[in-house]
Amino acid sequence: MLEKFKNIPLMTKILYLFTVVLFLVWFIPSMLNYYSKVNEYDKKLQEVQNEASKYSVTLKTKPFDLDVFKESADALFSKVVVNSKGDHKHKVMIKIKREDIKKLHTFIETLSLRYLVKIEGALKFKADDEGIQASMTLVEL
Amino acid sequence: MYNQQYVTITHYKEREFYFLNYAIQTSDGFITKDIEQFHESEKDAFIARIHTLQTKYPKNQVISLSLSSNQVVKDKEDANKISAQIFKNNYVIQDKIEMGNIPLTLYFSPFSVLYEEYKHKLNEKLTLMIGLFDRKLYIMFATEDKVHQSWTLGTRGLTEKQIADRVYKSMKAYYKISYKFADHIEMLVSDDSPKLLKVLREELSMSILPTQKTIHNLLHHMGAEQSRFSSSYLKPFLSTTQEKEELSVLNVQENKESSQVAPLESVALNSLDDIRLNNPSINSETKEKSVSFSSKIKSFFSNSTEQPENNSSVGLLSFVPLLFVLIIGGYFSLQTSKLQTKMDMVLAQSYAQTSNALLSVSSQDIFAAMGKSAELQSAIISNEEIELKGVVWGIEPLRNALTDLYSDGEFVIKPLENFMTEFSFKSKV
Questions:
Q1: For residue B396, what is the domain's CATH number?
Q2: What average pLDDT does chain B have?
Q3: Rounded CA gap, A78 and B120, in Å?
């Protein structure tokens, strides 16, 4: 084997050596990194799925779509206004009756499990005789 | 009758087969017997057959040919290597002989055989002598007084045309060294290859008349006379003094001979014991030659004597491992990059979910704290701080409830004109 290696041309030897070095310093680390990432991703995904099942959210998380979001929110609350602020940010105003506040809390808890969004900053509440008006800023992930 | 005859037993290994032949040497030449072939798995039978022949013909020489590609003709002898003198000032040198326990008394280099074949044709003009043995080309550029250059070229897997092309390239390579073209080419071909002979004649512009002889016949010829082989067989690890002594003994014996073939009985068979390869002293000496790791590495990258023309060329097949590493490695890198994007998204989602859940919990707690003691007018609830404002009826229950949740909060009440009390509460979370 070694004798055969000795007899091959110099450029081929250099090429083989380069291949071996590349295999050791790039190929193997890339492969190990990939499998490590696969495990890490599966673990995190499972955590999110466990959280979703805790709230009985069975649908797969979707990218944020303004119309779909408004449609589903309209079905839950008295009035929903959504205004896009650009830069993937949306100002949401929800009007609810005082007794429906629990519904709003559940909606907030499951929001990121149903849409790829997060609430940026604070929840703002204003109350009047008709009910409570909650406003928030959603940022697409 | 038999034991009076001088017999040359010749053998060599080509690929996985041993080829064995013997010839009865007579004053009119040698009479060869049938060539026997043994597979390497039948090595014991092969050795036994040689022993049988040696027993049957006590006056014998067991002769073989070194088909190693690591041999070269030099001007000086190397006391640490195996060498044979082929010219006045030229020695064939090679590193080692590995014949195991196969009997052997004379061992020749193809260069010695080549020289013996063509020495009578050498003159002041440059002659290129080529020997094709076991798919290797042994090449020497020589004039009548010395060998100027030598090298070996592999031809394994090459077509006849490619072999001819290599011969031509070696001529060009020599021209680069010495600025001289060979005036004449002699070629000795051991294999029965009429096509090669034809192609060589067609491809090489110079006139060439290849000779075709079997390795066995060449070796029988080499071993026929002591004067022929006394200096040209490969002598492993002989010191100069030892060799000189041996040569002088051989020369004295040679001088005593009155004809070329007649005194076959006087061949000093015992004087050749030093090249018997199963001699334990030689084996131990060989083993003692240790080679350092760094020199091994260097030797991997040093120019081999074989294939001097192709050292800079890279075959397409050589790229296969590199392509494999690049393609599969690239695939893993690409997949890792894609996975990282998905991973970032899942992490962001997980973080957003936790943040939203905390907001919801804070909000629930605050609305629960209000209870029937107060009514919220406005609230700003974040995961960093809260700010509440409303109307309160039960001040103490509300204060207690809120300070239970946020102990560092600032609870402020303010009486209103309509006999109601306004409260405000601020706290860091």
A1: 3.30.1360
A2: 77
A3: 117
Rounded distance, CA B8 to CA B89, Å? 28
Query: What's the whole-model pTM score?
Result: 0.46
pLDDT at A138: 93
Nearest to A127 among B321, B346, B375 (CB): B375
Nearest CB partner across the interface for B311, out of A9, A38, A51: A9
- The answer to whether A34 contacts B335, with C-beta atoms less than 8 Å apart, is yes
User: Exposed, middle or buried: residue B284 (CB in 10 Å: 0-12, 13-18, 19+)?
Assistant: exposed
**Token duo for residue B90:** 């030229």
Is residue B119 located within the same domain as residue B222? yes
Tell me the shortest Cα–Cα distance from A17 to chain B, in angstroms: 10
Residue B337 clears pLDDT 70, i.e. is over it? yes
CB-CB: which of A7, A34, A47 is closest to B350? A47
Q: Are residues B18 and B113 in the same domain?
A: yes
Structural domain that includes position B28: 2-123+212-308
Q: What is the spatial distance between Cα B220 and Cα B324, in angstroms, rounded to a whole number?
A: 52
Displacement of CA B206 from its chain's centroid (Å) = 35
Q: How far apart are CA B183 and CA A82, in angstroms?
A: 97
Nearest residue of A to residue B378 by CA position?
A: A126
> What is the band of B230 on the pLDDT scale with cuts at 50, 70, 90?
confident
B132 domain residue, yes or no:
no
CA distance A89 to B120: 99
Domain boundary among B266, B286, B308: B308
Tell me, yes or no, whether B333 lies in a domain: no
**Cβ contact, residue pair A18, B322, below 8 Å:** yes
Q: In terms of Cα–Cα distance, which of A61, A32, A63, A34 is closest to A48?
A: A61
**CA dist., res. A139 & res. A86, Å (int):** 10
- Name the domain count of chain B: 2
What are residue B150's DSSP bridge partners? B140
**Closest approach of B161 to chain A, Cα-based (Å):** 21
Chain A CB contacts of B300 under 8 Å are 2, 5-6, 13
Residue B382 forms contact with A (CB below 8 Å): yes
Span B168-190, pLDDT tens digits = 777 777 777 777 777 777 888 77
Q: A141 — contact with chain B (CB < 8 Å)?
A: yes
Whether residue B310 is predicted with pLDDT greater than 90 in this model: the reply is: no
- The nearest CA of chain A is from the CA of B68 a distance in Å of 11
Contact call for B343 and A123, based on CB within 8 A: no
**Same domain as B254, residue B116:** yes
**A55 at B interface, C-beta within 8 A:** no
Same domain as B23, residue B97? yes
Query: Which residue is listed with tokens 């088909």?
Result: B67
For chain A, residues with pLDDT lower than 70 are: 1-7
Distance from CA of A89 to the nearest CA of B (A): 14
